[in-house]
Specification:
Blueprint lengths: L10 E5 L4 H12 L3 E6 L7 H11 L5 E5 L5 H11 L3 E4 L8 H4 L1 H21 L4 E7 L23 H20 L3 E6 L2 E2 L8 H11 L3 E3 L10 E2 L2 E2 H12 L16 E6 L5 E2 H16 L7 E3 L15 H7 L7 H15 L4
Parallel strand pairs: 1-2, 1-4, 2-3, 4-5, 5-6, 6-11, 7-10, 8-13
Antiparallel strand pairs: 9-12
Bound molecules: nicotinamide-adenine-dinucleotide.
Length: 348
């Protein structure tokens, strides 16, 4: 295995730095002594207090600069690149969420397509050593063949969110081909953890429980045919990204021919769980955190449009490239989430 470890002498530009994954990645790089420029528009898709709280934890680092701004603002992005000359860029800013894209498509085009295009243009005029960007497991749509491999056909997205992420992969490939921008797309699989996203199911269920409300589970209530999700703990995502940062694609394909310096990797747990197994593990974690029995009141509903039956990552390509495979179990990860939640929201 021949991969380069993190280069702490570089300047890293991280978009979406006040977001869930962006925060943890920024913190990790800052703790290792890297210079980090963070950008985020702090939009109110979910509770902005959580975003400010994350930023508060980054502020004490001298090497951290925060810019409040929108990646769809081309002038700002160009200026940020010109002034800060980042060596490595990690684009995590995006409008996330599958279901929200059905009701609010505009913001997906604005942030995920125009915003990402601006990042590519900025890399074109201000060459970088590596552009790493977030794609998503949702590009696999309703694919039946599991585990999902990077070489699988992914032209059947079932939500606009997935379509924007797949478009990002195509755009990055083109820019890499035309302007020699080394670029890596990361297909993340359902990421969870402390300070996570309140719009995600595990967080929403916990909120509902403490409000004394029933939780709605969109799986038809059919355990035998339950949805499967490859739940990935945020520290594993950060470690995967960190290991890839100094390892841009070589520009030589498997057949030994010259190719665009662009590739994609799955970062998932390679261990899908039934949705109900995950929910029971969450009840158990909250039971441990509170020291009393927790059981959600459950209402089962039909599967929502845009939701996919299963996500399951093959991690072979990632392992081969950087000798890493996520390994945090849902029991460990959910315990850390439950302990944080109980402490942060002071619930009993
Ligand atoms: N969390 C997951 O399970 C998951 C799974 C697959 C892919 N992803 C992708 O990973 C990336 C990070 O996701 P996350 O879970 O940390 O989400 P997040 O919403 O917590 O973080 C995204 C951050 O980007 C910011 N942002 C959004 N649009 C912006 C814009 N136009 N300009 C500047 N900032 C903007 C938001 O304010 C937010 O703080 C996203 O691209 C997301 O699509 C996440």
């Amino acid at each position: 295995m021949n991969y380069k470890s993190l280069d702490t002498s570089k300047t890293y530009l991280i978009t979406g730095a006040a977001g869930f994954i962006g925060f943890y990645l920024s913190k990790q790089l800052l703790e290792k002594g890297c210079k980090v420029i963070g950008i985020d528009n702090i939009n109110d898709y979910y509770d902005v207090n959580l975003k400010y709280e994350r930023l508060e934890k980054l502020k004490p680092f001298e090497n951290f600069t925060f810019i409040k701004g929108d990646i769809s603002d081309k002038e700002l992005i160009m200026k940020t690149f010109e002034e800060n000359k980042p060596n490595i860029v990690v684009n995590l800013a995006a409008q996330a969420g599958v279901r929200y894209s059905i009701e609010n498509p505009d913001v997906y085009i604005q942030s995920n397509i125009i915003g990402f295009y601006n990042i590519l243009e900025a890399c074109r005029y201000n060459p970088v050593e590596h552009l790493v960007y977030a794609s998503s497991s949702s590009v696999y749509g309703s694919n039946k063949k599991v585990p999902f491999e990077e070489t699988d056909f992914v032209d059947n997205p079932v939500s606009l969110y997935a379509a924007t992420k797949k478009s990002n992969e195509l755009m990055a490939h083109t820019y890499s081909h035309l302007y020699k921008i080394p670029a890596t797309g990361l297909r993340f699989f359902t990421v969870y953890g402390p300070m996570g996203r309140p719009d995600m199911a595990y967080f929403g269920f916990t909120d509902k429980y403490f409000k004394g409300e029933p939780v709605k589970i969109f799986n038809n209530g059919d355990f035998a045919n339950d949805l499967y999700r490859d739940f990935t703990y945020v520290d594993d995502i950060v470690e995967g990204i960190e290991r890839l940062l100094s390892n841009p694609p070589s520009g030589v394909n498997e057949a030994g021919e010259k190719a665009a310096q662009h590739t994609v990797f799955n970062i998932g747990n390679n261990n899908p769980e039934k949705l109900m197994t995950f929910i029971w593990a969450l009840e158990k974690a909250l039971t441990n955190a509170l020291g009393r029995e927790v059981e959600f009141e459950k209402v089962f509903e039909p599967i929502k449009p845009g939701d996919v039956p299963a996500t399951y990552a093959s991690t072979e390509k990632l392992q081969e490239a950087v000798d890493f495979k996520p390994s945090t179990t849902i029991e460990e990860g959910l315990q850390r989430f439950a302990d944080w939640y109980v402490e942060y929201y002071k619930v009993k």
